[in-house]
## 1
Amino acid sequence: MAFWNRRKSIDAMHTPHDEAAHGPRLKATLSWPHLLALGVGAIVGTGILTLIGVGAGLAGPAVLVSFGLAGLVCACAALAYAELSTMMPAAGSAYTYSYAVLGELIAWIVGWSLILEYSLVVSAVAVGWSGYAVGFLNGLDIGGMSLALPHALTVGPHAGGIVNLPAVFIIAVVTGLLLLGTRESANLNVVLVVIKIVALIVFVAIALPAFNPDHFHPFMPNGFGAPFVKTGVMAAAAIIFFAFYGFDAISTAAEETKKPERDLAIGIVGSMLICTALYMIVAAAAIGARPVAAFASSSEPLSLILRELGQGGAATIVAGAAVIALPTVLLAFLFGQSRIFLGMARDGLLPARLAKISTRGVPAVVTVFTAIVVAILAGLLPLDELASLANAGTLAAFCAVGVCLVVLRLRDPGRKRLFKAPLWPVVAAITVVGCVVFFLSLKPVTQYGFLIWNAIGLLIYFVWSSRNARLAKNPAEAA
């Protein structure tokens, strides 16, 4: 069977796990509260705590519209994910869906793009966490002794430093937590997510009394923008898109979910609803409290706003909460990254040793390998470049999921669907068109970087992966 026609069987995903063929199964220990916390923990992070400043610098007060557009596209993508994940409850997320619906070549491109997305998200969030951690330490004064770190150890070479040591440190800590076990890390994640949401509520409660509607004029100083225009609402939406995705990490936990037919949809859709509402409120409070120019270039915009309002104590609390709770994003995406690798390794597209499961039921080898790669990226590169390139990988995956939704509805309309996306043609169209427009709104260097990454991936696929794929060696297993 030619590689472009090889597809995984959806029915095979519902049969008992064959450990002899696919390696040890991951332990099913998660329920819907864990998934909801995993989604909220992944979504609410560097995007709202840090990138709100970058987005406001591109769109002005109209960054609220940017949040709305990015949220709309992600909400539609979330509905598509919810339908497909309950039909195909296996580790791998968009990669797995593409393999079953669009074929092996497209699945490889999607999986390779997801590797880019998850790696760079972890790196970008680690850099964002570093900004808040450094600000938090600088604000502490214990017995007249400052805890400030040397500048050279808090930023990469792009900013005149040597290495972003706090970013490397937090990746190491989260990796250690993941190696303890899935349920243990998920339980701690729930606690940290609550801390993070409380911190945002504190910010809104303090910022709203200082609300000044004059800060919203002019509302759209850089215009709406369009594809290939690098300022305005669309350019900001393409960056702020980073603030919304994360719910796709939930779908990578399908194999470890006790009742995937119910809990995956609750986690995916529920986390998007919670986070969209929270984002809009926080963004409006931030702009109302201070002019956009006051925080657009800050690495810790929310804490900066509070300090300028004379609330230094509250700023320290918010920064401290960010320092404590931002690692939930790292946890969610490192978790998801290892499961993407696991799915591709089981399918023979990556070396089989990456699918090795530890005695604690986690893919330890690939988790450690991923952590080393992302720590190097976080230690050396700036936040905005990491976030932009991560967006490109995500947009490719979301676009593929939208196409999968359409193809499967038309090819197999009678297949049982435990969750059905409402108005599926509209949902799919908004997902696909929105992702294409956002991709065209990214910086050219980001677009070229994404294309180069996939050119490397295709070379690997044709030289090694296509020949070693399970379906190449066992055509009878194909759909």
Note: Strands lie at 141-142, 145-146.
## 2
Amino acid sequence: MKMKQFQFDLIKKQLKKLTSIPGGFYQKKFDGIDIDAIQTQSDFEKLPFSWKGDLREAYPLGLQAVPDSEIVRIHSSSGTTGTPVIIPYTKQDIEDWAVMFERCYRTAGVTNLDRVHITPGYGLWTAGIGFQAGVERLGAMAIPMGPGNTDKQLRMMVDLKSTVLCATSSYALLLAEEIARRGIGDQIHLKKGIIGSERWGEKMRRRIAAELGVQLYDIYGLTEVYGPGIGMSCDHECGMHYWDDYIYCEIVDPKTGEIVPDGEIGELVITTLRKEGAPLIRYRTHDLTRFLPGDCACGLDYPRIDTLIGRTDDMIKVKGVNIFPSQIEEVLHDIPGASSEYQVMIDHLNGKDIMTLFVEKDQGTDAAQLEEIIAIVFKSRIGIAIVPKAVNIGDLPRSEKKSTRIFDNRY
């Protein structure tokens, strides 16, 4: 993707500022690099990457690039392992984030007449408060529920006539199943679902859309780079537009770090163009995607990345074969009778790896026949033998946040 002149100008400005902060994160990171010598996109692409390990080492506020007097809020990554990543925000950062989030809602056709039901968590996590800020800037009605308490969620959804649901795909599925179980579908007024935080397969997408009777939109973001709201799919469901006046994106080979040709899958790398509190230069997200060429039929003049296919750290290796969750979802997508929900258990017994794939089966589907088909298709497409186990709809756990689908018990 060719860098635009205004992006290069903003990056140069960021680099000058960040390397002039005594003892600052990037002054140390870029020690020995002549910033003035960066005159082209190719020069910029020679700068070292940043990654989450760097951010953890900077705990708690080593990333901060402005005085304390300018910091109005902090957020932290939602990860449950390792040292937390703390991201400080200025007043302008908060405003910029709200601008991007409003843009996301408008891209999904949300207006100030909508009632937006927000289920992602509040607090140190960036999700809930980001969704709310965008709603309020748009002028729509925010219903700031947060996660959990499904009884109250559904009561508010019915009584307040919520028209837009913001959720993880796991919680959207849980709510859809509960609405169907209680037989209250005719009391639900939802029209749109804005889904983020975790990747989800096409089968799960179709199921949620059908059960809720909504059109679904993907929203993208990460705490290190504002939070959700830096990218959004449109009505045409052909990837996600990202706001290139606030972020610059590259896609690199996860192993070599080299830029891959446009259209090829690689790891998304983000540089913030305007962020003040904690700017990031060439930050490796671990998210796997590709640039989508050409103009979008929706008319938006913003570039697109494809819907995420997974993460570099999601990959598992079983019997010498690299497997991504997206591959499992693609296998199940093409098998009649297999639902969207699955869970993988990997064990090491008697000197060999055993991969058990639990799959929920549609009502009326014969379990033994389904298991036989899954075993054959998985062996054919992925290249290894597995132990398939068909279970009933609802037997696998549901989550109000992100679902854990792969459990590796070998280590």
Note: The chain has a mean pLDDT of 92.
